[in-house]
Amino acid sequence: MQTIFQTSLTPEQYAGQDYQHQVKPPENCPNCQRAHGLEALAYYGRYISTATAVFLWIWIRRFLCRHCRISVSCLPQFAQPYRPVNTPTIAAGFNGEVTRPEVQRSAQLIRSYWRALETHLPALVRQVGNAFGPLPLRPTARGYWRQLLERCGDLATATRQLIGQFQTCLFGTYRCHQRRQLQVE
Length: 185
Fold this sequence. Notes:
It contains six helices and four strands; from the N terminus they run βαβββααααα. The radius of gyration is 17 Å and the shape is globular.
């Protein structure tokens, strides 16, 4: 499984401070909901863009639940699941801030993320419903994006909420966000 944790760090600060060693496990397992059952397991590496469009290799902390045996990765809020462009840059691109250098450098990827949102939107609306407010009969990606920002404030908060409450994100519903069936002992 995967969770998004709040942090004020930039990707550069996270990498420079080896912050993955300071990441604490969620209080409850996102799969079985049992408290204080997550213990350190490992790390995995992934790329994330910076404000200068350099791609950094960062380490993501993983924990294992002692109760349900599911591993949980903790992604910093500046990262989106399966996307190398950082969250603020994606949001700036989605908001039409095309003159920003980091948006210009990642424009092709940001356009592909927008297409992923457009493709995923029907399933997202079915899964999330009116959780972020009433929807028109035929919602558009642009309208949904605006509504999400209005309700959540920013893409990082929206992603945390989508994953935590609905086991999905803007770009797809991934296995790492799904709860696993618990084995009866």
